[in-house]
Amino acid sequence: MVFNLNPMKKYLLFLAFFMSSLAFAANFPEKLSNSAQISVIIIGQDESLHGTFGESALRVYDSEQGLDALFTFQNFSQDFTTYFFYNLMLTKIPYSAVEAHRFTQYFLQNQWVKEHSWEELALNLTVDEMDALYCRLIDLTGTAYPYDFYDLNSSKMIWSLVDFALRNEKVIHLNDSDFSTPVRSIVFKSLSHRPLVRYFMTLMLGFRADKKLKSQDSLFTSQNLSNYLKNSFIVRTDSGESENHPLVLMSRKLGKDSGGFRAFPFYFNLIFLGAIFILSLAVSIFQMIKYNPDFQSGLDFTFQAFDLLLYSLAGIAGFILLANCIFSSQELFRFNFNWLWLFPLHFAAGFTVFKKNKSRTMFVYWLLTLLLCVVPFLIFRGFYFEGRLEQILTSGIIFARSLFQVRRHFPFKNPLKN
Questions:
Q1: Using alpha carbons only, what angle is made at residue 351 by residues 348 and 354, rounded to the nearest 5 degrees?
Q2: Predicted local confidence at residue 53, as pLDDT
């Protein structure tokens, strides 16, 4: 059942949503007791697109004051969540709200229904550090921040809060090299259960996604945040001597875990695209050898329809990529040169495959298309396997069919022909 709400009803629903959160926050004590504990809740990824990289939250537990609250940072409107991938690409600045919930109620409504993994990491903070973090959480509750799936999401918000609480202490991290995996590789692996979305998502990423990350840059996934916290130590001075104390006192699993979801092998898309590439190249070579401008075979008619579909889809994809380079608020979608070989004008050029007359203009256009299918892969300094081979095969399909278009519009006479 679909409910179509007018803007006023949406506004009232959104207002009621926030008022319930603020009403809960109004009952919070001003300060925490000495027995309080603040934990990071690591929520594993689920099959929804907005849960691709997992989610992180903060739990504040104070038994003396009867407080057990969960602060979540990844709360979107229903419309945004339903069309998450579309909105992520085209929305100028998506916003996510910071909300407070009763821990038990939220846990029962979410973990036991979705059955994805929950892990609790108890932080080794002093009373003053917990108070600083707690007061900051209260100030943020009911507000919204500009969401970016890489630069600013729930996991990075939580690390910034923990870092704020420990601003007067030195924190060291072990195994920083474990977090240097490029964003493209992380996205590729995180979307193993959605091969079609994985293909388009890696296509949307610009060359910034190919750079090796610094340790804190990789914290946009909840699992990386968990590993980072477990490998962090606070340098405290006790009795004139410095000692390293683990940032995480203890960790435990919460609830039940369904064991994840079905992951498709990495070569799932490669087999499909590879077969189309081989077929396209073989047909193009055959058509170039047998080309006769005065006669069209059934094969020619069939691949005219194929070429129209291919160039139309390429043009639409190129237009979206170019628009994201200019307008997207997601930094990783900018500086993306894939629109060069998925050129927006392909949408119009695809209709010329039905014309029999030669055109010098189209000859130059298809010749440039051949060059543009190669150039983007020459300018990437960091070349990683994940997602790139799929793009090479896709550009290879366009390259193969454009070869025949160059031959068809070749403006010079064949000197070998009598």
A1: 160
A2: 80
Do 149 and 330 form a contact (C-beta atoms < 8 A)? yes
* Burial degree of 3 (CB within 10 A; 0-12, 13-18, 19+): exposed
Look at residue 24 in the predicted model and tell me its pLDDT. 54
**Regarding predicted confidence, which is higher, 371 or 21?**
371
pLDDT in tens, 323-344: 888 877 777 887 888 888 999 9
- In whole angstroms, give the CA distance from residue 290 to residue 297: 10
Helix or strand holding residue 248 (H, E) = strand 248-254
Enter the tokens of residue 110.
């979410």
Would you state the structure tokens that stand for residue 257, as one six-digit string? 């875990």
**Which amino acid is it at 190?**
S
| β-strand partners of 245 | 234
Instruction: Count the neighbouring beta carbons within 10 Å of the beta carbon of residue 160.
Output: 13
Query: What does pTM read for this prediction?
Result: 0.76
pLDDT for 5:
41
CA distances, 28 to each of 19, 126, 169 (Å)? 15, 20, 27
Q: Give the Cα separation of 242 and 171 in Å (integer).
A: 12
Helices 154-165, 222-230: crossing angle, 10 deg rounding: 30
The helices-and-strands tally (H runs, E runs) of the chain is 14, 10
Residues 6+ apart with CB under 8 A from 2: none
Torsion of CA 141, 147, 151, 157, to 10 degrees: 10
Count other C-beta atoms under 10 Å from residue 176's C-beta.
14
Q: Which residues pair with 171 in a beta bridge?
A: 234
80-94, 168-182, 292-306: which has the highest mean pLDDT?
Answer: 292-306
